[in-house]
């Protein structure tokens, strides 16, 4: 008779978490949870689908709770049974985050920025060009990737970066800014703005396509700004 052994029963919790934590595709975790009851219990009890979804899409960390329609009988059974309620919550989150992650992979969020138009100044062009801000991460082709201005003696003088959006109408739900940490300098200092302000508008004259190389120009006289946000202090962290 063939003897089948469940490796989760032979490994400690930390090792099992490390192994299953290597899975990077939500459907793989769903398949793992279908192998056996013990595997399903392990995946759900440790919130592995939720953890993977939040690693892939950090903006979902703002989700406060997951709610599904439930019938009155199920609600009645939950009364006075805290372990039952906790397990049902974990199962609900497992289903919701697995579905959410898969949906985001099928219909990914798109960047609203199409191209860079201008920077008010650039210290070392093209090495420190505004185009570097369009790239993911702080390295490109083995070199540091960042934008740096020439700087001002008066810290009250603002620097400006101007971008072209991907369409005439864009729904902007979130703006992310990552300061640059100079890992190649002593103590790895962080170069961050004191505060930021966002302006939306349109050019006074048609700009045409393609945009070409971004300019060193404040560009204020070339645009009509229809919205300006308040100033937001920027956290001096990476």
TrEMBL record:
Pfam families named in the record: F-box-like
F-box domain: residues covered: 14-55
SUPFAM superfamilies: F-box domain (SSF81383)
Protein name: F-box domain-containing protein
């Amino acid at each position: 008779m063939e003897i089948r052994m469940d490796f989760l029963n032979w490994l400690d919790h930390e090792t099992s978490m490390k192994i299953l934590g290597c899975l990077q595709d939500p459907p793989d975790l769903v398949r793992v949870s279908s192998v056996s009851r013990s595997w399903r219990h392990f995946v759900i009890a440790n919130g592995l689908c939720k953890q993977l979804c939040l690693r892939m899409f950090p903006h979902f960390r703002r989700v406060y709770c997951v709610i599904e329609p439930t019938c009155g009988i199920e609600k009645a059974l939950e009364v006075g049974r805290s372990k039952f309620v906790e397990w049902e919550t974990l199962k609900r989150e497992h289903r919701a985050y697995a579905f959410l992650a898969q949906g985001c992979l099928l219909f990914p969020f798109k960047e609203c920025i199409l191209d860079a138009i201008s920077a008010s100044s650039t210290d070392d062009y093209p090495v420190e060009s505004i185009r570097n801000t369009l790239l993911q991460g702080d390295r490109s082709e083995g070199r540091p990737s960042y934008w740096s201005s020439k700087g001002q003696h008066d810290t009250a003088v603002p620097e400006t970066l101007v971008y072209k959006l991907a369409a005439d109408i864009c729904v902007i739900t979130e703006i992310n800014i990552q300061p640059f940490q100079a890992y190649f300098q002593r103590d790895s200092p962080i170069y961050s703005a004191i505060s930021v302000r966002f302006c939306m508008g349109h050019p006074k004259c048609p700009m045409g396509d393609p945009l070409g190389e971004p300019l060193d120009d404040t560009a204020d006289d070339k645009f009509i700004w229809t919205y300006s946000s308040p100033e937001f202090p920027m956290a001096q962290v990476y």
